[in-house]
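Hi support team,

I submitted a single chain yesterday and got back a structure, but I'm not sure I'm reading the token output correctly. Could someone confirm the output below corresponds to the sequence I sent? I've pasted both exactly as they appear in my results page.

Thanks,
R.
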Amino acid sequence: MTFKQRVRDKTPLVGTFLKTPSAMICEVLGRSDLDVVCLDAEHSPFDRGDINACVMALNHVGKPSLVRVPANRPEHILNALDCGATGILAPHVITGDDAYALAANAHFGTGRGYAGSTRAAGYGARKMAEHKAASGEATTVIAQIEDAEALKHLDDILSIDAIDAFFIGRADLSVSLGADGPNDEQVIEAVEQICAKGREAGATIGMFTAYLDEIPKWRSAGASLFLLGSDHGFMVSGAAALTRTVREHF
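Hi R., thanks for writing in. Yes, this is the structure output for that exact sequence:
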């Protein structure tokens, strides 16, 4: 079963963000039990070459890859998918038109430019019909809802069936709402609203949370895709655990 189908089936999935543009770290994380690794090209210094190398490393170990692109623009979407990424996580999807454009630009025939010379096309080994069909079956499109303005357009956003999942960006949502932080009551209410609307629409809902004890609550609310932590967080927490354990013996 493809990652896309698992997402659409609302299979519980857990992944993480990669903040360091490193093919080696991708290869290491790719050998873990994570369901997916998401390259954070929005908030970390990934250039086209970095995305290319990291996607290649994840493909090499058979791990699905998402790229959170810098912006919901066709050139960013095209590059990530041509490199062979499993899918796209696009930030700041605010209206139904934004969601429609995202889906269109991720698929051939509706906006995505075609080239048979890319990694995604097997460097020319796939015929056009084969590549188009394989891409349609596998390309995973995820829209990030993280703006107060988007709350007014949830019905339109969630109506775009070609979007495979809708991901709640709680940190930016907090900033957009003028809240003190992601646990502010109005932020929690907004997340609950998105989850409820998602259930009504039969949509797959994903999210990030820094508070792992919340997972049962959000699973009950209908969320199934969780991108949690990051390689930076793993390094910091691992170093802290090591020093804490060793110092107990000093």
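A quick pointer for reading it: The longest strand covers residues 223-230. Let us know if anything else looks off.

Best,
Support desk
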